[in-house]
Design goal:
There is one protein chain. The protein is α/β, with parallel strands linked by helices and about 325 residues long. The chain has 2 domains: about 180 residues, FAD/NAD(P)-binding domain (3-Layer(bba) Sandwich), CATH 3.50.50.60; about 120 residues, 3-Layer(bba) Sandwich (FAD/NAD(P)-binding domain), CATH 3.50.50. It contains 6 helices and 17 strands. The strands form 4 sheets. Strands 1, 2, 3, 4, 5, 6 and 17 form a 7-stranded mixed beta sheet that branches. Strands 8-15-9-10-11 form a 5-stranded parallel beta sheet, covered by helices on one side. Strand 4 and strand 5 form a beta hairpin. Helix 1 runs parallel beside helix 2 and helix 1 packs parallel to helix 6. It is elongated. The two termini are about 20 Å apart. About 40% of the residues are buried.
Length: about 325
């Protein structure tokens, strides 16, 4: 293989916490490391209002500041960041070939860190009023509805976290979950339960979202009380949906996936395709947190280095 045709030893696809950590550890190991991100580095961490549970940061930190530190640290070690879209990944001999919006890129290894996108309810009115009162990001859109009545849909960590954030903006937050108990961590459930600005309604399902006469904004919703089998309508100004995520796995065509579409790896973050690793929210994992994603990124780069050594590949100096 002509080494002049290689753009990197490691190419990381995705610039969230997992991808940025992988880039940092790859560059720190004296491997030529290229991170490709189609938007701004940071991923979903960018929209976190107050980050309070990342080890080593006892003070609250905004998601933006947090990711800025991650990005700068990766750059300090020599990682390169390219703003581009990756369209496909294929492997020829021992080299991965990436087709991107800025040309072809080649590397010995690929670390997939493309994350996951918010799952939708797929109910009447949801798509029509997205951006008009329906949102999937409380920190992005919550301030537009300060003092208004807001509905939060979901029963996991994200729903509880976002309800807590919205409760700082209004005293009229209603949190519904279709089951009779939350899936979130007990500490988070305790917080929302004792928050006087949050009303909890379990065994409730959102059926439809209605707008005003001009169709410009959310004005009313239809709810099903599953416990009593009663459907009713209620006025609301905004609906925030947090019902899970869809892994962005389209670039992992040859990798094994679980029934939900998450990429399956071993403890080294290695997929069933040699040299192809997956980290962060795109990977099948029991716990999706920033600290976990960062750890996975470090492991993946470490094992990628071992993989390259096994190929007899030349490390860039």
């Amino acid at each position: 293989m002509n080494l002049d045709k290689l753009d990197a030893d490691i190419i990381v696809i995705g610039g969230g916490a997992a991808g940025l950590t992988a880039a940092q550890y790859g560059a720190r190991a004296n491997l030529k490391t290229l991170l490709i991100e189609e938007m701004a580095p940071g991923g979903q961490a960018l929209v976190i209002d107050d980050l309070e549970n990342y080890p080593g940061f006892p003070e609250k930190l905004s998601g933006f500041d947090f990711t800025q530190r991650f990005t700068q640290q990766a750059l300090n070690f020599g990682a390169e960041i390219l703003n581009a879209t990756v369209n496909s990944v294929e492997k020829k001999d021992d080299v991965f070939i990436l087709n991107t919006s800025k040309g072809e890129k080649r590397a010995y290894t690929v670390i997939l860190a493309t994350g996951a996108k918010h799952r939708k309810l797929n109910i009447p009115g949801e798509s029509e009023f997205t951006g008009k009162g329906v949102s999937y990001c409380a920190t992005c859109d919550g301030p537009f509805f300060r003092g208004k009545k807001m509905l939060v849909v979901g029963g996991g960590d994200a729903a509880c976290d976002e309800a807590m954030f919205l409760s700082k903006l209004t005293d009229k937050v209603v949190l519904i979950h279709r089951r009779d108990r939350f899936r979130a961590q007990k500490s988070l459930v305790a917080k929302v339960t004792h928050n006087k600005n949050i009303e909890i309604r379990l065994s409730h399902e959102l059926l439809e979202i209605f707008g005003d006469a001009e169709g410009r904004k959310v004005s009313k919703i239809s709810l099903l009380n599953k416990a009593d089998d009663v459907t009713y309508k209620e006025d609301f100004d905004a609906v925030f949906v947090f019902v899970g995520s869809i892994p962005q796995n389209s670039l992992a065509e040859h990798a094994e996936k679980d029934e939900a579409g998450y990429v399956v790896t071993d403890q080294n973050m290695q997929t069933n395709e040699p040299g192809f690793f997956a980290v962060g929210d795109v990977r099948a994992t029991p716990f999706r947190q920033l600290v976990v994603a960062a750890g996975e990124g470090a492991v993946a780069s470490h094992r990628a280095s071992h993989y390259i050594d096994g190929l007899g590949g030349q490390q860039y100096i």
